[in-house]
Amino acid sequence: MKNVLIIFGGKSSEYEVSLQSAYSVISNIPSDRYTVTLVGITKDGRWLLFEGNIEDIPTEKWLDSACTPAMISTDFGDNSIIVFRENGIEKIHIDACFPVLHGKNGEDGTVQGLLELSGIPYVGCDTLSSAMCMDKAVTNMTADYAQIPQAKWLGITYSDYNADKDAFVSACVEKLGLPVFIKPANAGSSVGISKAKTKEDIYTAMDVAFREDSKVVAEENIDGREIECAVLGNSQPIASVLGEIKPASEFYDYEAKYINNDSVLCIPADLPQSTADEIRAYAVKAYRALGCSGLSRVDFFVRKSDGKALFNEINTLPGFTPISMYPKMLDASGIPYSELIDRLINLALEVK
């Protein structure tokens, strides 16, 4: 059997979500084909081999015991993690890695680069693709280049914004209208996102977003339905049936995703076949344009006024919790959770 390294946690605002996702992955990985080695990353960035009860992972009790300092060997081809036991160093061979990490310092190409240096095959997009998809400004520029329709947007760095705040805020109102969404360019699970309804609100929203990242994106408000598509594969990606999110709050923020159970997930989404086909085609086009492999969830709006589909964003390591859309959409497409994990590991082992 192959030994799969599952990494969870992370120095990220999405640490808690990662714990939930990892627990689901560990619980559903086919045990007749894979053994697992677990490494947790603490909120302050320490890497620890975890050999305790997996039931402790979602509650964060995993930190209480059964943890040993560990690191990935960066000797190319060594394909192992190094464990620092009290009685000496131990090496554990790794056949593939599933980095169940969300957001910065995990989904943004950092861990992917480390795994590429080590030569360990891993689930998901490569370093460049992960970094591009994590950065909303780069993603939006790529979508524009690939002629994928999306909301109007503007981007700015912290230094440029501080040089003339009024000019940028005025440009937002003039070019994007009100209300406007203000987002950190690099964050996940809607952390740091605000809906600014007045010009004065934009200043506050910018401060909130800059607490998460040094680059911010402003986007036109779209009055539309929130539609998602799961894409799976390397050179021949497939698109799932679509899902629709009816958020419990004004928009699908962190609380609506993970805390408030009133958000409604509809799979399949109730859309005209022509619209569904168009979204699925755009999802694959965005996946290819951004160099994705393994998996990604591609999100869209369907504007209520005219039914037009507009690209929103792409997530290279979407949630894998029991309520997450990515595995649910693929399950509805005929790929149950355990089979999905098996497929992802085999895609990681392919020569990309």
Keywords:
352 residues, alpha+beta, Rossmann fold, D-amino Acid Aminotransferase, Chain A, domain 1, Dna Ligase, domain 1, 3 domains, 5-stranded antiparallel β-sheet, globular
Describe this structure in words.
The chain has helices at residues 15-28, 110-118, 127-134, 136-145, 158-163, 165-176, 199-210, 254-258, 273-289, 325-332, 337-349, and strands at 2-9, 34-41, 47-50, 67-72, 80-85, 88-93, 96-99, 153-157, 180-184, 194-196, 215-220, 224-233, 238-246, 264-266, 294-303, 309-315. With 352 residues, it is an alpha+beta fold. It folds into three domains: 2-122, Rossmann fold; 132-149 and 223-349, 2-Layer Sandwich (D-amino Acid Aminotransferase, Chain A, domain 1); 153-220, ATP-grasp fold, A domain (Dna Ligase, domain 1). The strands form three sheets. It has a seven-stranded mixed β-sheet with strand order 6-5-4-3-2-1-7. The protein has a five-stranded antiparallel β-sheet with strand order 14-13-12-15-16. The protein has a four-stranded antiparallel β-sheet with strand order 8-11-9-10, sandwiched between helices. A hairpin with a 7-residue loop joins strand 4 and strand 5. The longest helix has 17 residues, at 273-289. The mean pLDDT is 94.
